[in-house]
Specification:
The protein is of the alpha/beta class. The protein has eleven helices and 14 strands. Helix 1 (12-25) crosses helix 7 (149-158).
């Protein structure tokens, strides 16, 4: 049987894609949804996919894998969150990897995603898929079907697809490393961070302990990295740390806001420790490689020899990356104390 594996978010575009792909390609549709810490009820997403016509709907808890194999290497390579955390961009190679893996398991020669034609995410996911399995045919139904947003909504209504009609929630991308809000959804504003001036008058003092470049304790309390990230997100967000001002997304031609409290705290701490244990020449090389790593993430070139080589550089530095960095969080600022 002809089969297509679809990266499924639960929004209106990927929900409409299920019957559209089934009809236009005379195929069974299998969906894949990853739990990356986006904070939604994924059991409901699975039921929505099945109700829209998927023959199988896989929901995978990939939070630990995301932190261990994507966030941590990016942190150690110095891919700093200058205007955003790169959380959205970092998740795309993992989505592509799971999509390609599921296609192999399901004996499917085609995969599909819900990106728009002009969406930067389209090039990221497709570049990753091409690197993982060049034989896969990649479908982008939202580019192919030629329907306006209202026509997509009508298509959903006509087929009683159980998904809310397009709205601001469809333009929010969140995971354990941060949150991006696009277009009309920018009116929803921030949810992880307070405005700096609304933060407490007393600072929070955070001591982040690293062992071989891995953050393992905060204020003396040892915890898995994913729990450490969640704890820092709450504390830093309360103090207004990690909020990035609105700007324009070049490819999507719309406003974008971002907030990444834990990413800012950990990147600041890790960078301070690297400078402390390094020297001028080494710091310069590391900074340049960090910028290159960020560019690879942004352009979807995760599965490349260059990214693997930079990971090797970070591993070579890891033995000296053990120590404690003390930070002061106050009114939107994150300052290294010692």
């Amino acid at each position: 049987m002809n089969r297509i594996v679809l990266a499924y978010s639960g929004g209106i575009v990927t929900s409409v894609a299920i019957p559209w792909l089934a009809s236009n390609y005379e195929a069974e549709i299998v969906t894949v949804t990853l739990d990356l810490g986006q904070g939604i009820e994924l059991a409901d997403v699975r039921e929505r996919a099945l109700a829209a016509g998927a023959v199988r709907a896989h929901v995978i808890d990939a939070r630990d894998e995301f932190v261990r194999e994507y966030i941590l290497p990016a942190l150690q390579a110095g891919a700093l969150p200058i205007d955003r955390s790169l959380g959205t961009e970092l998740s795309r190679p993992l989505i592509a990897k799971r999509l390609a893996g599921m296609a192999k398991m399901e004996s499917a020669s085609r995969v599909a995603h819900g990106c728009l034609c002009s969406d930067e995410d389209r090039s990221r996911i497709e570049a990753a898929l091409a690197a993982l399995d060049p034989a896969l045919e990649i479908l982008a139904p939202a580019c192919q079907w030629g329907m306006s947003a209202e026509q997509v909504a009508q298509y959903a209504r006509d087929r009683r697809i159980p998904v809310a009609i397009a709205g601001p929630h469809d333009n929010v991308d969140a995971n354990v490393w941060g949150r991006s809000i696009y277009g009309d959804a920018a009116g929803l504003g921030y949810s992880l961070t307070r405005a700096g001036h609304d933060g407490p008058d007393e600072p929070a003092i955070m001591r982040i302990e690293f062992e071989r470049g891995v953050p393992v304790r905060t204020n003396g309390l040892e915890m898995p990295m994913i729990e450490l990230i969640e704890s820092l997100e709450t504390i830093a967000g309360t103090h207004g740390v990690g909020r990035f001002p609105g700007g324009m997304s070049p490819a999507r031609t719309e406003d974008v806001l971002a907030e990444s409290p834990a990413a800012v705290v950990l990147s600041t701490a890790h960078g301070a420790l690297a400078r402390r244990v390094g020297d001028g020449e080494l710091d310069g090389v590391r900074a340049g490689l960090g910028r290159t790593y960020s560019r690879l993430i942004e352009t979807g070139h995760w599965f490349t020899p260059l990214r693997e080589a930079i990971d090797g550089f970070a591993r070579a530095l890891a033995p000296r990356m053990t120590g404690t960095v003390t930070l002061k969080l106050l009114k939107g600022t994150c300052e290294v104390v010692s």
